[in-house]
Amino acid sequence: MMELTRKGEYAIRGIVYLASRPADQVCLLSEIAKAVDVPQTFLAKIFQQFSKIGLVRSYRGTGGGFILGRTSDKITLLEVVEAVEGPIIPNRCVTGAGECDRSNACTVHPVWLKVQDQVRDLLNGITLKELSGQ
Amino acid sequence: MMELTRKGEYAIRGIVYLASRPADQVCLLSEIAKAVDVPQTFLAKIFQQFSKIGLVRSYRGTGGGFILGRTSDKITLLEVVEAVEGPIIPNRCVTGAGECDRSNACTVHPVWLKVQDQVRDLLNGITLKELSGQ
DNA sequence: TTAAAAGAAGACTTAATTGGTCTTTTAGGG
DNA sequence: CCCTAAAAGACCAATTAAGTCTTCTTTTAA
Ligand code: SF4
Ligand code: SF4
């Protein structure tokens, strides 16, 4: 259970690679895709998502490509994962809304809240800088 | 991401209910299904899985039903979840086998190992006894 | 003005999830 | 010995999600 999808895995690979490149130099999607061994068409959509929320900045046209939207020490693994996989939800009932009418009396509910917290904390403590080895 | 499926949720509900019942008294599947609001046919399959690995014991025929395979303080939430959802796998590469040829050099790999550890530890520390409020 | 590059939309295939139905086996009770 | 209650097991079907590829549009430096 709890498995990251390929999308999430590819997203991380791609942006970690981008973080490992010179920060002032745009990077071709095709280069990234090749380097991290991901289908380029799939990675394109992922980077579009990144771009929309400002995790990367894109330049179109000749000489275009991608750079990070912020410095690599300001982007956490949690952000990257949530950008493409959505929030960390170990079970429906932790979304806040009244997803389960049993949640008041439920003894299991607090467990999922704790799982969510722990995982978020862990991922939030790791930046692209560390992951890119710089 | 990481969402428990309905199967997992139902499994927990069902066995926690069973743990809340008198330990020496067999419990009808129909009763459990009704009490925890789960489709009986679906719950049947879940309890068959439980039965195979000894988490519950089943009795067929008239007067049949289910009881816990062990006392409720000896069954952890981790066992229940893994019984129906499979092992806790935040990413392919933590299965032990050479699932990803990048894993040696990969800086992200250790993160998933830690996530796996933390979640397993947490779930392993919770027993059906606590969850059934006894 | 043209070729390179990202953006956007969507078609398509495959696999997993969430059930349902029907038959078979087992066990008690009269 | 037969009837009935109950779980076990074998299929099956709808829905949803994942994963990949295609095609077209827009932007922009040279
Ligand atoms: S854990 Fe409890 S509150 Fe959460 S979905 Fe299950 S029953 Fe509802
Ligand atoms: S995290 Fe690293 S080792 Fe794990 S699958 Fe991704 S690239 Fe491979």
From TrEMBL, chains A, B:
Name the Gene3D superfamilies for this protein. Winged helix-like DNA-binding domain superfamily/Winged helix DNA-binding domain
Q: Which InterPro entries match?
A: Tscrpt_reg_Rrf2 (IPR000944), WH-like_DNA-bd_sf (IPR036388), WH_DNA-bd_sf (IPR036390)
The molecule here is called Rrf2 family transcriptional regulator
Q: Which Pfam families match?
A: Rrf2 (PF02082)
Transmembrane stretches, start-end: none
Positions the record marks as coiled coil are none
State the taxonomy lineage: Bacteria, Pseudomonadati, Thermodesulfobacteriota, Desulfuromonadia, Geobacterales
Do you know which PANTHER family this protein is assigned to?
TRANSCRIPTIONAL REGULATOR (PTHR33221:SF2), WINGED HELIX-TURN-HELIX TRANSCRIPTIONAL REGULATOR, RRF2 FAMILY (PTHR33221)
